[in-house]
Amino acid sequence: MDIRFSEDDKTHKFQLWDGDLQVLELSVERGQRTAGNHLYQCFTSCDGQIFRADVRFIAALDENENETGKLVLCNHPLADRLAGMITDDIPLREQSIGSGEEQFESLILHGEVV
Fold first, then answer.
1. Assign residue 80 a region: left if phi > 0, alpha if psi is -120 to 50, beta otherwise?
2. pTM
3. Alpha-carbon Rg for the chain in angstroms
């Protein structure tokens, strides 16, 4: 998968490609970027165990819920799966992070699936 980003003064544009096949395109109105230091806890599971990885972003953050935008799902199996998951009319929160630093910590055993 290849993610292609572009932006101008008003819009962020994200395209997801699988080789020569486009999966989706998302365009979102740009908000105001503010300097930030954000820690995200990401979770995954494997063989009944739950793992956590901390990811820190030190960069300008553009985060808003009230922007306008457009999501185009193309003819691709992943886009078909996404379409099946989008069942709510509540808008998504969009975040974009400017140039900066990303720190990925190692996976930590967090728990067990019960």
1. alpha
2. 0.59
3. 17
Place of tokens 């395109």: 25
| Nearest 10 degrees: Cα torsion 55, 57, 58, 61 | -160
The total of structural domains in the chain comes to 1
Specify the residue for token string 């999501």: 71
pLDDT in tens, 87-100: 766 666 667 777 88
Three-state SS for the chain is CEEEEEECCCEEEEEEEECCEEEEEEEEECCCCEEEEEEEEEEEEECCEEEEEEEEEEEEEEEECCCCEEEEECCCHHHHHHHHHCCCCCCCCEEEEEEEEEEECCCEEEEECC
In which domain, by residue range, is 50 found?
2-112
